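Most newcomers find our protein records easier to grasp once they have seen one. Nothing more is needed to start thinking about how sequence determines fold. Here is such a record, shown just as it appears in the course material:
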Amino acid sequence: MVGGSSVHYGAMSWRFRADDFKVRSATVEKYGEEGIPEGVALADWAVSYEDLEPYYERVEEFIGVSGKAGANPFETPRNKDYPLHPLQRFGGNEFIGEGMTALGYHPFPTPAAITSETFDGRPACTYCGYCAGQGCWNDAKSSTLVTAIPKAEETGNLEIRPNSRVFKVLTDDKGRASGVEYRGEDGKMYRQPAKLVILSAYTFENIRLLLLSANDQFPNGLANNAGQVGRYFIGHTLLFAAGVFPGKNFNRFSGAGGGQSVCIDDFNGDNFDHTGLGFIRGGLVGVASSEGSPIGGSGLIPPSVSQWGEAYATWLHQNANSVMTLFSQLETLPYENNVLELDPEAVDEDGVPVLRVTYDLFENEQRYWDYVGPKLEEILVQQGATETWRGEALPNIVSSHDVGGARAGDDPATSVLDKHLLTHEIPNLAVLGGAGFASISGYNPTETIEAWAWLAADHIAENFDAITS
């Protein structure tokens, strides 16, 4: 889809905190080397918050992000407020937010890449209830489809060739990227020469293309002579706790979903003391609305109710609009065992090997949920829930928060990319997106992906001749 997953994402638009970029050194400083769980390849980022801060600001002002500086007491201080005020409040979320406050937590409105007022010729959000998972009917969601792409096309410097597929990145006899091999919309194969190649599909396809482009100079895949491509894959784990409030009508089917959520950072990152807890880092906690139709909420049934039949239908009829859920978006750690690689047997419809994902959760994640899960249920009970329940901590991949696999760093022996997202081994090949992340934070990765891509683009533009010579 032109515009990628930003067309149908929930549009939460976070800046990572300064400590998220120093995750290893900050952990060691506070808890010692022994604080890092076994099998975790924890590393500081190749860039800092200070590097990305001006690009965060540019992204927010370019696409239109709604929020309120200082509303989150745990955020890294900003130089400027958001360009747009926060989205309207949603009653159900505010109701749960009151419970958060009563228990001593610090709720705040989520920053969102959704226009709360007219911005750059686009109208404000209408709170239609079809936000996350859908394209925006009036272009209030600040996807690249309605922001960056049309503006780039207007310059005459961008040509989009739809319904085309790149199969391979080509290299010359010096081992430099020289173009791509692709199938056009007409079904024919073409070779497109280029002085610079930028992979900007998504984590999975970027890694897959690097591996599929193996040749004599790079027998294990492009930029993979050090064996780092595909390593340290990370995906967010989304956990939930739910409660039923008989007789209350939350109108869960309305609103802008993640954009109107109320969150707390009290259990995110290292914002709380982990001493004696048996785990490090943490997760974002929040409450969101939208698309809470009876069908959409048909899976939110407490264990005490039959999961099928007349009892199931009766409970759903009476309570579908009276359930509220709290989520926790857990910062899964970069484990050595979580990898991306080409499948040795399975192929797609074009006969090309698919990407095999090896991924699991470990004790650190389970201990987090054992600690935080009951606290989420406590918030629901505080507000009068008559029954609460929570989901299991299960691996969640192929989402919109899949990062790692081409870690950026200073050492070519332990990383694939440099701080400008150019590969160490092929200096005119860039890999944009989340593949360069060293860790994931508890926040959605979109705005950090955008800011880092802008930093990389500035570097490439300013040094183009040197990079491509």
About this structure: Residues 4-158+216-468 form one domain. Residues 167 and 227 are 21 Å apart (CA to CA). DSSP finds nine helices and 15 strands in the chain.
